[in-house]
Write a structure and sequence with these properties.
Elements lengths: L21 H13 L2 H10 L3 H23 L5 H45 L15 H68 L6 H26 L7 E3 L1 H15 L5 E6 L7 E3 L1 H17 L7 E10 L2 E8 L27 H11 L3 E7 L3 E9 L11
Helix pairs in contact: 3-4, 5-6, 7-8, 8-9
């Protein structure tokens, strides 16, 4: 009568019973993991259930009232005094009983229900709600907040599941496209090599004064462009893991800068390199990082419009515990609406671009457990920063 059957153990000191909620059990378990065993034992032995804490002040006040009432009835006769004391004691007991029943009905029952619902949630059932949310008090506020939280969790789970299915479908679609692209690239490359050989023979046999030589030269350039596109497609569709070894990142960067300088000799573009002599060796695939930096440098050169003068700066250093290579230019910059899309495959703003360069560069850097950061201001230029960890996980370092 005093409390619901399922919570009768809660009326005892917790040293001989379980805590009143699973959340309390979890908290006690967390404390025991972070503290010594004797301290955890002391905490458990000193802990009292909330019912006892709530009734204890009421009982003490009633006991003090009985003592004072006893002193006040000293002048009465014994039979009358005994009767008055019996009535007062019975009233005190009734008050305690009513208090216990009220607490059990108003507080303990909602807490037990909340405990059961939290147990269901911990098992993965989010379709739960508490019934005391209709109450117009603090316990009702707790119930309404709990139900609202569960509603948000259900919506979040549905959104996550929807996004998961979308991403799975997209991944399958991209995998199919990748296989098709790889197959097409392989099939196109074979006749392309034959065409390139025929054009080479034709160009050799033409007289030096023939105007067709200029056409042959243009055809060679177009064949080289097609071959480059096919190479990017194959690299994107069939990526190979990096062959990592410890080496000087300055050397890799310097080799790339030297190659790009040879390509811009006829343009008034200055490529500056700032080395980092004290930089520790970095575990990386020098060929793949060379490919990344070559793409960034060529993009920086092409961003300087109209064949005019400009500067491309390359700075090697370290930041946030990683090796850093910064490539900045004084070109036209990237518009804010295009900036979020520059790493997407096949996205390009160039007339003759494939849109695979930056996508491939980011994939290579991410396979090195690094990242690429970009900032750009239209009309002032762009800055790309490649961050690479000095040391990769041991399982990914190639045996040299």
């Amino acid at each position: 009568m005093l409390s619901p059957p399922q919570s009768a153990s809660n009326l005892a000191v917790s040293g001989g019973s379980e805590p009143f909620s699973s959340a309390g059990s979890s908290s006690a378990g967390s404390l025991s993991q972070g503290s010594s065993q004797p301290e955890d034992f002391r905490l458990r032995s000193m802990r009292f259930n909330w019912q006892l804490k709530a009734i204890l002040p009421v009982g003490l006040v009633l006991l003090a009232g009985l003592l004072l009432f006893t002193l006040a009835t000293v002048s009465l006769r014994n039979p009358e005094r005994h009767a008055v004391l019996i009535v007062a004691g019975a009233g005190a007991v009734a008050i305690c009983a009513v208090s216990i029943v009220a607490l059990a009905y108003l507080i303990q029952r909602p807490m037990v229900e909340l405990q059961e619902k939290i147990g269901l949630v911990s098992e993965g059932d989010l379709d739960v709600a508490v019934s005391f949310s209709r109450r117009n008090d603090e316990i009702g506020d707790l119930g309404r907040n709990f139900n609202h939280m569960m509603e948000q969790l259900r919506e979040s789970r549905e959104e996550i599941e929807r996004l998961h299915h979308t991403q799975i479908s997209r991944a399958e679609h991209l995998a199919t496209l990748g296989e098709m692209a790889a197959g097409l690239a392989h099939e196109i490359r074979n006749p392309l090599a034959g065409i390139a050989g025929v054009i080479e023979i034709i160009g050799r046999d033409l007289p030096s004064t023939s105007p067709a030589r200029a056409v042959v030269k243009d055809v060679r350039l177009e064949i080289a462009q097609i071959d480059r596109i096919l190479t990017d497609l194959l690299e994107t569709a069939r990526p190979h893991p990096p062959h990592v070894s410890r080496g000087d990142l300055n050397t890799t960067v310097e080799h790339t800068v030297m190659l790009v300088r040879q390509q811009v000799l006829s343009r008034p573009i200055k490529i500056e390199l700032e080395r980092a002599p004290d930089l520790p060796e970095v575990e990386h695939d020098s060929d793949q990082i060379h490919q990344v930096l070559l793409n960034l440098l060529l993009n920086a050169v092409q961003a300087i419009e109209g064949g005019g003068a400009g500067t491309v700066r390359v700075r090697v250093g370290s930041r946030e515990g990683c090796a850093s290579v910064v490539v900045s230019d004084s070109g036209r910059g990237i518009s804010p609406q295009n900036l979020p899309n520059i790493f997407r495959p096949f996205f390009t703003t160039k007339g003759n671009g494939t849109g695979l360069g930056l996508s491939l560069a980011r994939r290579i850097v991410e396979e090195h457990h690094g990242r690429i950061e970009v900032t750009s201001v239209v009309g002032k230029g762009s800055q790309f920063e490649v961050l690479l960890p000095f040391q990769l996980p041991a399982a990914e370092v190639a045996v040299q």
